[in-house]
Amino acid sequence: MIPFVPNADTSLQLRRAFGHFGTGVTVITTQTEHGPLGMTANSFSSISLDPALVLWSPALSSKRHDAFATAQSFCIHILAADQHHIAQHFAAQGHDFGALDWAPGLGDAPTLSDCLVTFHCETHAVHPAGDHSLIIGRVSKVSERGDASAGLMFHQGKFGSFQTTD
To answer: Looking at residue 144, which CATH number applies to its domain?
Structure first.
């Protein structure tokens, strides 16, 4: 074990340490006055079953942060292992929906087709959290694809999928 104190000089070390925790990959979408907007995020988490609440956490430095922090509604898409191209697309930019199959959903939030799960949410709260915001959504509708496909995972800066160790 190599100990260190998190600070500005060790931010890359801290990022690498956080990267040891594998996460699922999502794309969050919302409708803005300029059209549909999307963003790749691995900071998604469920919070509560009753009421149904979820959270995700965009960086303040993101050009898309303010649009999501002020949105009244959004849709969280859990991606399948074969949808890494969608994650990469929305990691690079958020306004181009032209090559994707989607339709307006609740609150006009763009709903991408064929994702493992979609959660349509109304913004419940937004809280400051260091260099990110915590956006809490109240889930108003859930849709599941209905198959046993593996979800897309992110670990140590790379996309992959989960393998069981039965």
So the answer is: 2.30.110.10
Range of the domain at 32: 24-149
Model pLDDT for residues 113-142, shown as the tens digit of each residue: 999 999 999 999 999 999 999 999 999 999
Q: What is the pLDDT of residues 43-63, one digit of tens each?
A: 999 999 999 999 999 999 999
Residue 143's alpha-carbon distances to 51, 92, 129, 147, in angstroms, are: 17, 26, 30, 12
Residue that is written with structure tokens 């032209």 in the block = 98
Task: Pick the closest to residue 148 from 117, 119, 120 (CA basis).
Answer: 117
46 within a domain of the structure (yes/no): yes
Question: How far is residue 77's CA from residue 56's CA, in Å, rounded to a whole number?
Answer: 12
Report the predicted TM-score, pTM, of the whole model to 2 decimal places: 0.92
How many residues can be counted in the chain?
166
